[in-house]
Design goal:
Blueprint (H helix, E strand, L loop, with lengths): L4 H22 L7 H8 L3 H8 L2 H26 L3 H14 L4 H15 L8 H17 L8 H20 L4 H17 L9
């Protein structure tokens, strides 16, 4: 029985994204060719052009997929923490530390900005800032953080965490830089916290 058209489209897209992700994650964007993606997926160049326009469009789709996976992992980190504040700190720190993972490091924080431009202008950034703002609103309602405009704080945190991840990904010694970046970032977050009486 022939598969429904929508299912076939989703399957073709999925195959191309998986092939692109493997190529971008191993040999990098510059070295990966159209034939790497289409050959591995058993599809034609026409299919790639139809679904993604070009190699850049495929990279964008791969980044959206990885970003969604990162978000899911970060939500799990936050949910596992004993308090909302600790969850927030752990989630932000985990994002920075993900820049040590080879696939994320290469695709999200090296090739992504080189090909797609400033990370703060990517299409997923407004969603990240909105999620951070909601978290900060809850922390503010709990009396955990100082009286600060939460969108401003969210933009500061988003920019700082992205910058730290880029620093790690492009460092000669990413492990050493990660330790410094996370320590500095936690200190910055700590400055938002309201002084707890009796502590």
């Amino acid at each position: 029985m022939r598969k429904p058209r929508q299912e076939m489209i989703a399957e073709t897209r999925g195959k191309l994204i998986a092939a692109g992700r493997r190529a971008f994650g191993t040999i990098g964007y510059a070295e990966a060719s159209m034939d790497d993606f289409t050959g591995e997926a058993g599809l034609t160049r026409g299919a790639l052009y139809h679904h993604f326009g070009d190699k850049r469009g495929l990279l964008q789709a791969v980044i959206i997929e990885i970003d969604a996976e990162m978000t899911e992992r970060l939500n799990e980190v936050s949910a596992a923490a004993p308090t909302r504040w600790q969850g927030f700190v752990d989630e932000c720190s985990a994002y920075i530390e993900m820049a040590l993972e080879p696939e994320i490091q290469r695709i999200m924080f090296r090739d992504g900005p080189a090909v797609l431009g400033d990370i703060s202008q990517w299409q997923n950034t407004p969603g990240c800032i909105a999620a951070l703002s909601r978290s900060l609103d809850r922390l503010k309602a709990d009396g955990e953080i100082i009286d600060i405009d939460t969108e401003t704080a969210a933009r500061l945190i988003n920019g700082a965490s992205s910058h730290m991840a880029l620093w790690i990904a492009n460092a000669e010694n990413p492990e050493a830089v990660s330790k410094r970046a996370v320590a500095g970032f936690k200190a910055m977050l700590g400055s938002l916290r309201r002084q707890q009486r009796g502590v």
